Amino acid sequence: MFNADVKRKLAAGGTVFGSFLKVDSPQIAELFGLSGFDFLIVDAEHGCFTHSQIENIIRTSERMGMSTVIRTPDAAEANLLHVLDSGASGIQVPSLRSAAEVREVIQRAKYWPLGKRGSARACRAAGYGTMPNYEARANADTLVAVHVENREMVKDIEALCEIEALDVVFIGPGDLSASYGHPGNASHPEVAAAIDRVIEVAKGRKHIGTVVANAAQLESYSARGVRYFAWLNDLGLMRGALNAAAANFAPYRASAR
């Protein structure tokens, strides 16, 4: 039942556009779909979601023709299983520090012969037992992304790119800048060099993703081969829209004084 369009578009050489979803709101998910986004990254690391809420967001996104990738709280087996059994298009795992840890994620996210994921066909992803050859389809279509957001992962990027079942390396500029001792300054030469290193090694071997906040960042990263984009998040986009609205009536408040 899961939507695998994002993985297929990437495999065909396309560029995909999503956003982080931090608020449990099927209505907001629908708005993203109506606006033409390809996918949502449901932020179960920093957002507040129950398993049933995530499943409803997945269901809503599918109806809007979007893929749903879940940023899990961590790499724990139970967290990966819950979202994949719910029909997520893929997982995006944060806080890892080595290629060895990523291989463990693959083992938990893929069925035999690629991994050791526990089989439970009576789940939504398998059409509650009605989908033939579900395990083979899940192995082929489930997207696996991991964050490169610390100096240890940058150092291990060569080994990371050798992991066959890994689809996307996602550069997290914010956490990466903190890891190098320059929090909030992704343009610092040391951080920029780390990002350059990841792109240099991963280009042509893995799909590369990152978060962008404006057209200039999008153009710059796109020119360097990045094709999996998260455009801010629901809260940031709403804050920007609300600030723009408030700017219209600010002069009237001033004149009232």
What does this molecule look like?
With 257 residues, this protein is an alpha/beta fold. The chain has a single domain (5-256), classed as Alpha-Beta Barrel (TIM Barrel), CATH 3.20.20.60. Helices cover 46% and strands 16% of the residues. It contains 12 helices and 8 strands. The protein has helices at residues 5-11, 26-34, 51-63, 77-85, 99-109, 134-141, 151-155, 157-160, 173-179, 189-202, 215-223, 234-256; strands at residues 16-21, 39-43, 67-71, 90-93, 143-148, 168-171, 207-212, 228-233. It has an 8-stranded parallel barrel, surrounded by 8 helices. Strand 7, helix 11 (215-223) and strand 8 (228-233) form a beta-alpha-beta unit. Helix 2 packs parallel to helix 3 (51-63). It is globular. The mean pLDDT is 96.
Spatial order of the strands forming the largest sheet: 1-2-3-4-5-6-7-8
Q: Give the helix/strand class.
A: alpha/beta
**Shape assignment:** globular
In CATH, what is the class? Alpha Beta
- Fraction in helix: 40-55%
Q: What is the number of independent domains?
A: 1
CATH topology: TIM Barrel
The fraction of residues assigned to DSSP E strands is 15-25%
Task: Tell me what the CATH architecture is.
Answer: Alpha-Beta Barrel
Which value, in Å, is the CA radius of gyration? 19 Å
Q: Cα distance, first to last residue?
A: 58 Å
Q: Going by CATH, what is the homologous superfamily?
A: Phosphoenolpyruvate-binding domains
Largest sheet: 8 strands, parallel, barrel
Chain-averaged pLDDT:
96
The topology string of helices and strands comes to HEHEHEHEHHEHHEHHEHEH
Beta-strand segment tally: 8
Question: Number of helical segments?
Answer: 12
Low-confidence parts, pLDDT < 50 over ≥5 residues?
none
